[in-house]
């Protein structure tokens, strides 16, 4: 099978030509790695994705998960891929070596994970949350907890979950009611109900380690009184696993992700559910906050991965599907049919899908590399700078990538026409699967509030200033290149409009009109994301143009005709031309709206917040 | 059950306060109707929709259709609703009285159909296509054909279909291969395969009348050589129904519309399929073109109807779902939970959903009323004017309403959060069901080409001029109203930008650069739709403001405080305030982008049409 999941050439471009990840090997922590090792990892991930995860993807969708006799059962084919996934050492890929992991840089983990998610998002939820749980224990667990659980999680022998949501408390985590009562032996008795728990139960592993947010008796209301507990499905007593009074009440029947068990769990139905406190009491939210960046980056990656698979499938389809004559011969019934890739409307859609997919890949890998640098830089200022970039851009990574990722899958259905609406083709599954990513791990509305309410304010706006500085530097550099100057100008203009909107928000906040930034946080995040993607694509165009000019020079291709000839015969030249085209198209078709988007934010009032509810519906 | 399908108050507003449909009763053709009769029709439609169609909707989705022993079976509950639908006389609602129908104006048919579609799109596909087939026979069938089929179709005893698409010929209808061979008795033998035939088989009716596009042996290639035939599933021989060699090969398994049988049909597998020519040979396409406006309006209505149901469900949910404190008390864990309708981000989404849903309803009813006037006006100029409005706006009705309708269902899922992703709530079904509407009956890309390639050119651009004239007239009028002037100004500005883009396309076409309008037809249609909806909402705001001012005057509410009090205690005042808010919000948040959208069209090149395909994917 041709790889229709992730564009390998583009992955190589982002990693090595744009981000120069080989430089990470100079850092002590990554000293034993080399580009060759990175490529081996990526190659192995790709093979697992293509040969094993992808073939089980449709299976997972059609068969789904089932709850029977209190036990969730996953599709048969998932047992095989779980085994292969563990055998390949994938659960421990980006866990530190001192914790038993392989410790590859986050950016490489990101690239490896992208193609595995593109192949099978339903499956990847199980290990995805396991890594999250392992990380919590790695950073906040006590030595006993680490020795009890880490090895099993890191090997994939056991899975982990994150149990936050309760029926009455969705986005409002502080409203949770699950209780923890201190036992004389220092453990806690947990009672309560959680919903929407990904991988809350399954029959892939003999045990599941739930990390559960709960309130210790007598603790404060709201988020301040929340603690976090290890609650194993089966606890260890005298070296044996015994049931820990965790009951799977239901699995949700969902739009997509049928293979991922979304569970409602009851803890302590028989008052025999034991939990083990992680860190001090009441530190549950701050521990979760530490994990948040990574978790949200991962969800952004899910948006990218499904966009990537949707785009790749669409290009293949558009190249193979013959229909109608070329538009220049539309009135001639005898003119030959052409692939729909030649039809302008289809090509325009593909061009948009290409540019945003490449832009998201660049953004997510870039932020992942900043995660690496923030953790490893010995220079404190450098570390702070990278941490700031991560903090600022995480809501964009999560929300923009999942909103736009959905949009890409929508267009993939459109390009496939009637066939796209049928299960026979995989694109409608992409659309259904990816939709959840705008909802879980903090809805995209929550991401926007995080951006506007927290991130813009951090260090008196310094994060934003730093980011704008990076954009300005790039624009100044590219402005010297007459071929790319128009693109740079559009990025620069979008930057000014984002600044305008940001200043406007700051003024409103200072004058106490908090409703304004709260009300327009989502359109603001969209505008911010547009600029960020424009910035990424301009950066890529700069590199591509340099490579292309060198190729032209090498080939003695001085005239446009000769250059066109080269591009048509040389795949590398075509790739670089495509890169520049992505930046150009995105700047023209998306960044041109920046002024209007800023205007819409700044001129729109808050009047409709005052409308009586009867204005919406005679309820 | 509260009506969560269509906002009845808004329907009344559009019909009577905005469009003054009572005036239609002055026309001879509609002389026996009155507003009371219209309301009886709407009331009956609503009752059928709420009490019968809606309860079967989830059923249809879960059970779906199945092909067994060559026969498609629909869910059991559909037999009941089919019977009730026929008993209520709904199949013949807008069929002329001389053809055995009830002859209600198209605009009333539109309003009645909206709520039935909102209740059950899967079911409504069967009668929808039946009406289409009946109309073809009504207009183009010979008397014998009419007497054989019309009564059965109009009573709903038999269903009809439209068989256009073939595997190799989707949007390119001219490529079809189904053959017709003239028999000595004047009938034709039909052989060929069709796919994606809605209602291609079912067990609701004893017979199905397929209208089949086919090429008579020796006819020209392309669309010119296409004829249209009646091909009954069972033909009448000596007063008995006998099999007519139409085989159902498959039913598609689809993203949504599970209750609607999308069939692959083979005609003449045993060389015993008889077809009856409608009209002269080779007139198939022109006959189909006559039906196109109505069919596309109906699909636009499907986009509106599912948007409406999605919006109504979302408002109810947002009003009932308590979560988190009011944003002004965000830091106080003890502050009471508020309905998420109070959360600014949710309200902003609802406001957008409300404004576009109301705008679409206004547009579609308006165009339907123009259909009535075009058919009934005794003044030839008037008739031509209305026909021109219909022709121009039909692609907008179809494409804008289905694209935006999908977007509304997407936000409905978002507002429902995790619950929206689960089957337990109906919104995810709306999203899946409505997606097909951007694809069938001419993809939205085809609609855009129809707008740019045909409609803008008709009568040397006179249609466009007329439409712009209507917008200008409204703007001039509303400009006199200081309260609404800012909204009118934004509509006027959007109008200028649409004109700019239109002139730009005309110039490009004149200079032979046809690629430009072809490439940017879809973004152009979006901009055109934005202005059209802005126009509709401004028109509604004008009326609402007048009513509101009268209410204030009656109540002696001279101050803003008193006016606010009135709006909070009087549902009518709240409704009108909501109307003005819709126009204001849409003009601010959508029309503000018009300049950028026009710029994106005009500054974007055609360069990427020349990219080698390897730039898209190393295929």
Automatic annotation (TrEMBL), chains A, B:
Stretches assigned to the Acetyl-CoA dehydrogenase-like C-terminal domain: 467-611
Domain Acyl-CoA dehydrogenase/oxidase C-terminal residue range list: 282-451
The keyword Nucleotide-binding is assigned to this record: no
Pfam family, one: Acyl-CoA_dh_N
Domain Acyl-CoA oxidase/dehydrogenase middle: 162-267
SUPFAM superfamilies: Acyl-CoA dehydrogenase C-terminal domain-like, Acyl-CoA dehydrogenase NM domain-like
Necessary cofactors: FAD
Gene3D superfamilies tied to this protein: Acyl-CoA dehydrogenase/oxidase, N-terminal domain, Butyryl-CoA Dehydrogenase, subunit A, domain 2, Butyryl-CoA Dehydrogenase, subunit A, domain 3
A molecular function (GO) term: acyl-CoA dehydrogenase activity
Keywords for this protein: FAD, Flavoprotein, Oxidoreductase
Segments forming domain Acyl-CoA dehydrogenase/oxidase N-terminal: 39-157
UniProt key word Oxidoreductase: yes
InterPro entries: Acyl-CoA_dh-like_C_dom, Acyl-CoA_DH_CS, Acyl-CoA_Oxase/DH_mid-dom, Acyl-CoA_Oxase/DH_mid-dom_sf, AcylCo_DH-like_C, AcylCo_DH/oxidase_C, AcylCoA_DH/ox_N, AcylCoA_DH/ox_N_sf
Oligomeric form and interacting partners: Homotetramer.
Family: Belongs to the acyl-CoA dehydrogenase family.
Name of the protein in question: Acyl-CoA dehydrogenase
Organism whose genome encodes this protein: Desulfomonile tiedjei (strain ATCC 49306 / DSM 6799 / DCB-1)
Lineage: Bacteria, Pseudomonadati, Thermodesulfobacteriota, Desulfomonilia, Desulfomonilales
